[in-house]
Specification:
The complex is a heterodimer of chains A (272) and B (290). Helix content of chain A is 47%, strand content 16%. Chain A has twelve helices and seven strands. In chain A, strands 1, 2, 3, 4, 5, 6 and 7 form a seven-stranded mixed sheet that branches. In chain A, helix 2 crosses helix 11 and helix 4 runs parallel beside helix 6. Chain A is globular and about 60 Å long. In chain B, helix 4 packs parallel to helix 5. Chain B has a seven-stranded mixed sheet with strand order 3-4-5-6-7-8-9, sandwiched between helices. In chain B, strand 4 and strand 5 form a beta hairpin. The chains are: A alpha/beta (272), B alpha/beta (290). Chains A and B meet through helix 5, helix 6, helix 7, helix 8 and helix 10 of A and helix 4, helix 5, helix 6 and helix 7 of B.
């Protein structure tokens, strides 16, 4: 095999991993909420501007324990994908998440975040209402939250848009998910000035959650049944539920002061 | 001495019959002079520096290297640049023709900086501060692990020595070459800001042209007061990305400081000549009241 075809093959394989993570059959946040949680009541709106359907959330019961579950929802068909803006939140989505987190904190409920977004929405309206400001505020809110926080990367965790729901005591991820600094298309546009070179960017950036696991940004990979979560959603949601419950059981034993201290210390050393 | 030397033209005379058709190149400013990118007027380096790198004619604020910036902001004689031993990381073994460590080494040699940030102890109107200034010339001011470490240590320094924190932010965003590790830096810098906030020390952020991506979406806007330089381009996603992704028409003055001021995102748009006084006044106002 020549070097050129070898490179092309490598890029094809790397991008196939991204496409697997984008498989429309993978479990979405609302499916996870329906499958793993009970008595969910959706709470909508950020109380400031509007309601962003890319972020859904509300209190629910998880194995006898009431938690606040907040997720990024991509949608499952053409219409719901449009309604949920393909899981790309506007600032309202992040502000709604912050509001729900503060409510959870008030009542001592642990927070469970389901991360599934290619990136925060890039648009005129999002910029006008302070996309960067909303994300930055979410980072601070999550760092200081005085209740246990567990985040799970379901399929795609892209850019600060994902990190804004993934600053937690424990970050879990489904094993075929990707977690990247930006979607491969954006990386290619920035690095090579050509969004078409997404395969090359995917090969260079190693977007799989394994990379995030290596540097300690993800604590545990939740195994998926072969050939992937899209083929066995119920089994995957069961495994996810088990892992979240196990981590919450551990975290709820720890005193809140220690928990917040450890969380801040953890992110102070992030990326080392 | 010729005060107005002829510009060196890069392009062959257009009237020449053999002149190759090509892009029209602007004449290169002769050594020792600076050309304003707004109005095209030329000034001597010294005069430009005296005006804090603001065009005396059109008022355009040129990019300021971090070393110049700390000197502009601090009281005379108060500067103490903090050199840091940084660990270089190349978690992805990134190579786009030039290996990533060589790019960093080249940037280091060219800018004579350790990394994107210059961190310094200083006094501003006698208020003790830690200055953390970004240099856009260092790989586009991008935020990688070493830069994140610099900012986090600047925050620690502010806390241990009870100083205010002043950050001048100018960056293209997260450093793509480090992949996910650079995303983690947003959380790391935020943890630094939290430490400063918990010590009840004031943190003032100055947004300079350009400031985008993961820098804007983290420490740049987590300050107690956010100031912006006139006409600076500031945002999360770049205008070109937005146009391509959504086909939205960008409004007039989109993502400029003035636009953000009108939308309630920054506290003030401050001319560079007033920046030092404005920052120090805010620091004094926020300094713990007994």
């Amino acid at each position: 095999m020549t070097i050129a075809t070898h490179t092309a093959e490598r890029e094809r394989v790397a991008f196939a991993a991204v496409e697997l993570a984008r498989n429309p059959g993978r479990p979405r946040a609302l499916q996870v909420i329906a499958g793993a949680f009970a008595e969910w009541t959706e709470m909508r709106g950020d109380r400031l501007f509007g309601d962003d359907r890319a972020v859904v959330g509300g209190p629910a019961r998880l194995d006898e324990r009431w938690v606040m579950v907040i997720g990024q929802e991509k949608g499952t068909d053409a219409i719901s994908r449009a309604v949920h803006n393909f899981g790309m939140p506007h600032p309202e989505g992040y502000r709604k998440a912050q509001r729900l987190m503060r409510t959870a904190e008030k009542f001592g409920m642990p927070v469970v975040c389901l991360v599934d977004t290619p990136a925060a929405h890039a648009g005129v309206a999002a910029e006008e209402r302070g996309q960067a400001w909303a994300i930055a505020e979410s980072l601070i809110t999550m760092l200081e939250l005085r209740v246990p926080v567990v985040s799970v990367v379901l399929s795609e965790g892209g850019s600060g848009g994902a990190l804004a729901l993934a600053v937690a005591d424990r970050v879990l991820a489904l094993e075929n998910a990707v977690y990247t600094v930006a979607p491969p298309e954006t990386c290619a546009a920035i690095l090579y000035r050509d969004a078409g070179q997404r395969g090359r960017a995917a090969a260079a950036l190693r977007p799989g959650v394994g990379t995030a696991h290596q540097i300690g940004l993800v604590d545990e990979l939740i195994p998926e049944p072969m050939p992937g979560a899209h083929a066995h959603t119920a089994v995957t949601i069961g495994a996810l539920r088990g892992a979240v419950v196990r981590h919450l059981n551990e975290l709820c034993e720890v005193d809140v002061q220690t928990l917040v201290h450890a969380r801040i210390a953890r992110y102070r050393a992030a990326g080392d | 001495m010729d005060r107005y030397p002829n510009p060196v033209m890069r392009r062959r005379d257009a009237a020449h019959p053999l002149a190759a058709p090509g892009p029209k190149l602007r004449p290169v400013a002769p050594a020792g002079t600076v050309e304003c990118r707004g109005c095209g007027r030329r000034f001597g380096e010294a005069r430009f520096a005296k005006h804090l790198r603001v065009c005396p004619d059109c008022g355009r604020h040129a990019v300021v290297p971090a070393m110049t910036r700390i000197a502009q902001l601090s009281d005379a004689g108060s500067l103490d640049v903090v050199r840091m031993q940084l660990t270089d990381r190349d978690p992805l073994g990134f190579d786009d023709g030039v290996p990533y460590p060589s790019r960093v080494a080249e940037a280091r040699q060219r800018t004579r900086l350790d990394e994107t940030f210059v961190v310094a102890r200083a006094a501003m109107d006698s208020v003790p501060v830690v200055l953390a200034c970004m240099d856009f010339g260092f790989l586009g001011g991008s935020l990688g692990s070493a830069a994140g470490e610099q900012f986090a240590r600047a925050c620690d320094l502010a806390v241990t020595e009870q100083r205010g924190l002043v950050a001048v932010c100018t960056s293209g965003g997260a450093r793509m070459q480090e992949g996910i590790a650079s995303l983690a830096q947003m959380a790391r810098c935020s943890a630094g800001v939290v430490a400063v906030a918990r010590a009840a020390l004031p943190y003032i952020s100055v947004l300079a042209d350009p400031c985008f991506g993961g820098v804007t979406a983290s420490f740049a806007v987590q300050a107690d007061a956010i100031l912006a330089e006139p006409h600076a381009r500031i945002g999360f996603a770049g205008g070109r990305v937005i146009e391509q992704a959504t086909y939205d028409r960008l409004p007039e003055g989109f993502q400029t400081s003035e636009f953000l001021l009108a939308h309630g995102m920054v506290d003030a748009v401050v001319e560079r000549s007033l920046l030092r006084d404005t920052v120090s006044r805010l620091l004094v106002a926020f300094w713990r009241h007994p």
